[in-house]
């Protein structure tokens, strides 16, 4: 308990110090609230509008998480096909890189154009921009199998598919988690970017409309909810890895 | 019986290397053969050819099936255990790959016990010492009930005491006919180990690897650790050492 407290204490204390500093600066320099609202007014705006905030958060996170789920399933299938049929790797890999090189905000308008203004286009943007991370990490995990392990599998007359199933996939588990953590962040960015381009609900929509009216406290409120939700999901992923997949961790390499 | 006839192996690449040249040898049933030689002389290559893991560039390998079909199991220098599998699950791997045989699977606990792993069945490799890990690797090689066991410097990275203990145990296992193994081919650069374990020691000379000399180890088959201190053991050791420059 003590060590856990020690590990997380700085991270817990830091925001309070930050908020205090923030309140202090706003007051001492009398900064106008449309530039930097006081923490009290941000808190007030969150508590005043939390039903809508919750509603918009629900929309944004369901877009992001749908895209995230799609990128996990699609990315995993893609990487497995890259392993089993190298021709698919040679054909598709450059385009996969292109999806990540193209700026998210520039990809979104096309998907909105093709898939309509609603939920689908936002989830698709989230999926397209984050698949890359799942795939490159999985590919690394599949490839970083020791020569000795490959030789062992060969001495057991394992088929290509068995090597993948018994050796490469389990070996890639920690890489998979690293990949989807990065993918989660871009999924959220993708959903919000698509909302910026065109939407009538969601946290991205909220930030943008409040921006037009200089309602900075409300913008902050929406941003904080966005961050809190993302961090919560990130934590859930880390916890899942630690609890259920600790033996796959490379730290345990004998 | 396994026979190699005039076997040559060339590794082609930017700098092609002849790893083995003109190797002719025979491994009879019920024989424990060691292959010794300096590192890089082609011991591992020879073992892989004996086991059919790689093909010779020229020459032939014949495996006689007079006494039923042969099967080969390897033990490498590194235990190569899968970190996500427990000892028991690592041992089960060959059965999963070669198609499950319930009868063989039922033998896992006994085999682990025989190798001194009782109590460690559900331990992960990271929780086992180097010696224990190598025991798991040997169990994994034995579970598929091979007729020939091929070991490539299996104890090279263990400390002296652990190595001697594992030597003793391997010899017991082999001598007591507790396993299906008829032939053992054991690669090492440790001459003591080779003399202690073997019926016959084959010395390879380096680059390219050729059979330099063969020694029949006429120590009594009932060997205990004490044999290591006998006069005869030492003279054999000295003779073999003298052939390796
Ligand atoms: N896969 C390979 N490709 C190219 N050269 C190899 C390969 N394996 C071994 N060699 C070369 O063949 C020679 C014999 O190697 P090896 O059989 O591993 O020797 P040892 O086991 O006695 O140390 C060495 O010179 C080594 O560099
Ligand atoms: Mg070697």
- Tell me the structural class of chain B: alpha/beta
First and last CA, distance of chain B: 31 Å
Q: What kind of assembly state do the chains in view correspond to?
A: heterodimer
Shape of chain A: flat
Task: Give the overall form of chain B.
Answer: globular
Q: Secondary-structure element sequence of chain A?
A: HHHHHHHHHH
What does this entry look like structurally?
The complex is a heterodimer of chains A (about 250) and B (about 240). By secondary structure, chain A is an all-alpha fold. Helices cover about 85% and strands about 0% of the residues of chain A. In chain A, α4 crosses α6 and α8 runs antiparallel to α10. The relative contact order of chain A is 0.13. By secondary structure, chain B is an alpha/beta fold. The longest helix of chain B is centred in the C-terminal third of the chain and has 16 residues, at about 160-175. Bound molecules: adenosine-5'-diphosphate and magnesium ion. Magnesium ion (MG) binds near residues 43, 44 and 152 of chain B.
Put the structure in a nutshell.
The complex is a heterodimer of chains A (254) and B (245). In chain A, 83% of the residues lie in helices and 0% in strands. Chain A has 254 residues and is an all-alpha fold.
Write the layout of secondary structure elements.
The complex is a heterodimer of chains A (254) and B (245).
Chain A lengths: L1 H27 L10 H10 L1 H35 L1 H16 L2 H12 L3 H25 L3 H9 L4 H38 L5 H10 L3 H29 L10
Chain B lengths: L1 E10 L5 E11 L4 E5 L6 H8 L7 E6 L8 E4 L11 H11 L4 H5 L1 H7 L15 H13 L5 E5 L7 H16 L7 E6 L2 H7 L2 E6 L4 E7 L14 H13 L2
Helix pairs in contact in B: 2-5, 7-8
Adenosine-5'-diphosphate binds next to strand 2 and helix 1 of chain B.
